[in-house]
Write a structure and sequence with these properties.
With 289 residues, the protein is mostly helical. The chain has one domain: Orthogonal Bundle (Farnesyl Diphosphate Synthase). Strands 1-2 form a two-stranded antiparallel sheet.
Length: 289
């Protein structure tokens, strides 16, 4: 099965018990709105690529891990878009959850998606309890405190913010979780895999900062200029466009050089270089050359 189809099938499996007569239909609809119908699925694709490079001997465990990672990511977007944070109208080219369903339902949607991530791991990784225990810990650390997604969001409320620490918690941590979870699901999990994800996450955040100042909002599917408007840390503001591009390239190099030994190491390295080549907005391609 092609990776995109496998990811969507895993996500549908995670949602199999959500839309039932026993639950509120608008909450179920809001949860689907947050997860389906858009998104590049970068984090689950990364988890799957690592699992495949490590042999993918338990596909059901891999599918549970990648689905949990993506559901967590979508939960973070729902909360990030709320009026108390970014107050965004669009996400992935469609109305944000609080615009489409109301602010109270958006809060509950994000909360329910976080729980769904853990339910998915518990059910899908039951055949490998030794791996499931580590996967739960990886996912929990990625979402909570002191260095998970909640901490990343909280840094925006601090008077003094270190850009690197902010980016690690806001973006890098879930990439690091994706690489370690993918390897763990395939029985090759070690903390060494986190470096690959952490560097890719930082690179993606720098690319996102570049998109925020240079991308076409119609293509991006969300407003641009948000960091400046909200006074948030931004690599372009600190380093300038050339400096941000150089930083992105350096992070990608560090990422591929860190890939631990595994059966599919070279194929994984090639795939990552191809994918990260698309990080830089087209309008900046000449400066990046």
């Amino acid at each position: 099965m092609e990776s995109g189809q496998r990811i969507e099938a895993a996500l549908e499996g995670a949602f199999a018990g959500i839309a039932t007569p026993a639950g509120p239909p608008r909450l179920a609809a809001a949860m689907r709105h947050a997860v389906f119908g858009g998104g590049q699925r970068i984090r689950p694709r990364l988890a799957l690529a690592v699992a495949l490079a490590c042999g993918d001997d338990r596909p059901a465990v891999t599918d549970a891990a990648l689905a949990a990672i993506e559901v967590l990511h979508c939960a973070s977007l729902v909360h990030d878009d709320l009026p108390c944070f970014d107050d965004a109208d669009l996400r992935r080219g469609k109305p944000t959850v609080h615009r489409a369903f109301s602010e109270p339902l958006a809060v509950l949607t994000g909360d329910a998606l976080i729980v769904l991530a853990f339910q998915t791991l518990a059910r899908g990784a039951a055949e490998a309890p030794d791996r499931m225990a580590r996967l739960v810990d990886i996912v929990a650390a990625a979402i909570g405190a002191p260095t998970g997604l909640c901490a990343g969001q909280a840094w925006e409320s601090e008077p003094d913010v270190d850009l690197a620490e902010y980016q690690r918690a806001k973006t890098g941590v879930l990439f690091a979780a994706a690489t370690e979870a993918g390897a763990t699901a395939a029985g090759h999990g070690t903390p060494a895999w986190r470096t690959l994800g952490a560097r890719l996450g930082e690179a993606y955040q720098v690319a996102d900062d570049l998109r925020d100042v240079a991308a076409d909002p119609e293509i991006l599917g969300k407003p641009v200029g948000q960091d400046a408007a909200l006074g948030r840390p931004n690599a372009v503001a600190q380093l300038g466009v050339p400096g941000a591009i150089a930083r992105l390239k350096g992070l990608v190099t560090e990422a591929v050089d860190s890939i631990p030994e595994c059966p599919g190491r070279e194929a994984l390295r090639t795939l990552i270089l191809e994918e990260t080549g698309r990080f830089i907005p087209a309008s900046l391609a000449r400066e990046a050359a």
